[in-house]
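Entry 12.
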Amino acid sequence: MTSETTRFEFRCWPELTSALRRDIETRYNLAPANRRTDIYFPAAHRDDLLIKLRSGSRFDIKACIGWQAPLEIWQVQMASDFPLTPDEQAMLAVIFPDMDCADEPLANPADALRRLGAVAPVRAVEKVRRLSDAGGLRAELTEATCAGIAQWTLAFESASDTQVMDELAALSLGLSRNLSYGAALRHPALFGGALA
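Predicted 3D structure (tokens):
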């Protein structure tokens, strides 16, 4: 059921207490912080998709293809440099059929912002991320800021559901709500919820 681009994922948005932060920093060898800004284009009718400009330059689409409670199963649909290929543009035109020149491939990030911004909300998320990749498990502790609102997010992903579940148990996070960035951007208690 999993492939190189299919991963079990769990992302929560905890109140980052000093005890939880200490547990995370003790358990994982987190790399020094790196910063980037991702620009999300939430499709109102497609909660199962994450569509974004990664670091403002690379175009990504991920799809949630299922659940194995409490985990989500995500698969990369597109990870592309510009310009998009005709096949990639065709995929995008299905998601955003009202996009200007829907059959003409996006040429560059500015073109993506202009054309997608006309048919979808544009949400820039500044991220200060600390990552650990060990033994097939990615652990991520990130401070994410959108529209002036900052939140902490903790995420785990792996090709192995057992590996992610073991981490949730170790940190007593099994009852936390799993919310992707797309869901968090819509959640009123996290980033205001309204996507205009």
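Annotation: The first strand starts at residue 6 and ends at 12. The two ends are 36 Å apart (CA to CA).
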